[in-house]
Write a structure and sequence with these properties.
Length: about 70
């Protein structure tokens, strides 16, 4: 399984909780909006990514799961 983070920019209100919980992948721009590192979430950080997703006050952070075969098509 591959995991990718994405942000819904319409629902995000720049609380910064995601960057607090997952600073290895998420940084904040000058206005407090998340900037995600490119690529898949490293396997050792998937649990932290899941925690960041459920902790987002506006549910703007999304963790997509896909199999390798599906990701290629």
């Amino acid at each position: 399984m591959r995991y990718r983070l994405r942000v819904n920019p319409i629902t995000c209100e720049a609380h910064g909780m995601c960057a607090e919980l997952l600073g290895e992948i998420i940084s904040l721009d000058p206005w407090g909006y998340p900037i995600l590192a490119p690529g898949a979430v490293p396997p050792e950080l998937v649990g932290h990514a899941e925690r960041a997703v459920v902790s987002c006050p506006t549910l703007a952070l999304i963790l997509d799961r896909s199999s390798r075969a599906r990701a290629r098509s």
